[in-house]
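Input structure tokens:
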């Protein structure tokens, strides 16, 4: 019995030693990894073990990496892209002052959708909407309201989509009442939108995502230089047309559609047919150009914005000639009632009541922050000077291209 107890005790001691040895080995391995990981902080990225594995990250790594080496990896990726300062194809501002970059980084931490937590940022956003709405001569807010109906968007694409949806829902209410249809019946009627064939990609998304037929007019390139003819545009309208789009600066040669002439044609058509077709002004390119041309005395022959009776919505790209950070756009509605109200939602689960006029909810405040910075930084005079310089470059390029001759 004594020998059995001794053998059992000895076996227990051996098992405990084996366990302790295994734990020690695991600890040594862990310490070795930590030492190796720590050593990577003291060497360059090129001499670290991460440099040879940079292309293997298709899954989340099991352990974290030194911040400076992760930044180096991303910088290497960035260097393989085109130089942003030489980019003339994606219509985005690529120059920023140090203060502007700091403002953008500040805004990146703010969820502009949460008005109950960030009321001051929401007020700054609304002030930018006011500045842009007054620049586009929107009517004063109804009932003495403080802010115009509009919103910051993710580029002018979201601005076009929001305007299009508001116009579609406005048309649906009118069409339902005109034909005595039920809510269910009117859903079966497919509307259309009339636009020049030289439209930007945003409208392709609108037609596909929101089931609206595109009625397209091809401009006469010789006669109208890529600007749409107002009569040709309005000729395609019918009672299922939610709106016509006037392009204030197309993406090919910058020509403005004659929105003032489109307004005259729409006015006559609505009066004759008893329709209520409106105009959306797509100012992705010209929304921050035409106003400052006009301020300099070199503007369009006639108004192109909310001064025209039938202009109901207008959008612009803040990150193009508005000079804001990439991903900044704006949309302004003629009024809230019966128009912006169609795309407005109220959210209460964040601790307060917040109205949202955008497709997306959570988003950083960087766009509104930088747009506010640029509007105050340049002022009207700065934007006028900038536009004047851009028109000078345009004139030079036009003259240069016209003088080119084939070597034969």
């Amino acid at each position: 019995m004594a020998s059995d107890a001794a053998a059992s005790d000895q076996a227990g001691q051996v098992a405990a030693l084996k366990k302790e040895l295994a734990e020690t080995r695991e600890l040594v391995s862990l310490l070795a990894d930590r030492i190796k990981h720590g050593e990577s902080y003291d060497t360059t990225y090129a001499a670290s073990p991460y440099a040879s594995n940079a292309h293997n990250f298709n899954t989340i790594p099991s352990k974290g990496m030194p911040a400076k080496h992760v930044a180096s990896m991303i910088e290497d990726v960035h260097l393989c892209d085109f130089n942003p300062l030489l980019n003339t194809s994606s219509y985005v501002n690529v120059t920023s002052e140090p203060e502007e970059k700091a403002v953008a980084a500040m805004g990146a931490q703010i969820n502009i959708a949460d008005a109950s937590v960030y009321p001051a940022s929401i007020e700054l956003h609304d002030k930018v909407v006011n500045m842009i709405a007054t620049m586009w001569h929107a009517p004063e807010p109804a009932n003495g309201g403080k802010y115009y109906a509009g919103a910051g968007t993710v580029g002018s694409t979201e601005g076009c989509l929001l305007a299009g949806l508001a116009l579609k829902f406005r048309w649906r209410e009118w069409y339902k009442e005109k034909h005595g249809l039920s809510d269910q019946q009117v859903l079966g009627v497919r509307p259309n939108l009339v636009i020049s064939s030289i439209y930007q990609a945003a409208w392709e998304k609108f037609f596909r995502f929101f089931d609206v037929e595109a009625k397209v007019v091809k401009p006469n390139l010789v006669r109208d230089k890529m600007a749409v003819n107002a009569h040709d545009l309005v000729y395609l309208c019918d009672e299922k047309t939610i709106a016509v789009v006037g392009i204030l600066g197309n993406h090919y040669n910058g020509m403005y559609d004659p929105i003032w002439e489109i307004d005259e044609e729409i006015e006559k058509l609505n009066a004759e047919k008893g329709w209520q077709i409106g105009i959306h002004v797509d100012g992705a390119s010209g929304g921050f150009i035409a106003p400052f041309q006009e301020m300099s005395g070199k503007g369009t022959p006639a108004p192109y914005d909310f001064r025209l009776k039938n202009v109901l919505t207008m959008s612009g790209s803040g990150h193009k000639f508005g000079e804001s950070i990439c991903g900044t756009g704006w949309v302004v509605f003629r009024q809230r009632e019966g128009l912006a109200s169609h795309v407005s939602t109220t959210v209460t689960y964040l601790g307060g009541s917040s109205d949202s006029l955008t497709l997306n909810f959570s988003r950083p405040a960087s766009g509104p922050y930088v747009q506010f910075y640029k509007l105050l930084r340049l002022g009207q005079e700065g934007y006028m000077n900038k536009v004047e310089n851009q028109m000078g470059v345009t004139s030079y390029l036009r003259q240069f291209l016209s003088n080119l001759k084939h070597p034969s």
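DSSP finds twelve helices and nine strands in the chain. The first strand starts at residue 150 and ends at 153.
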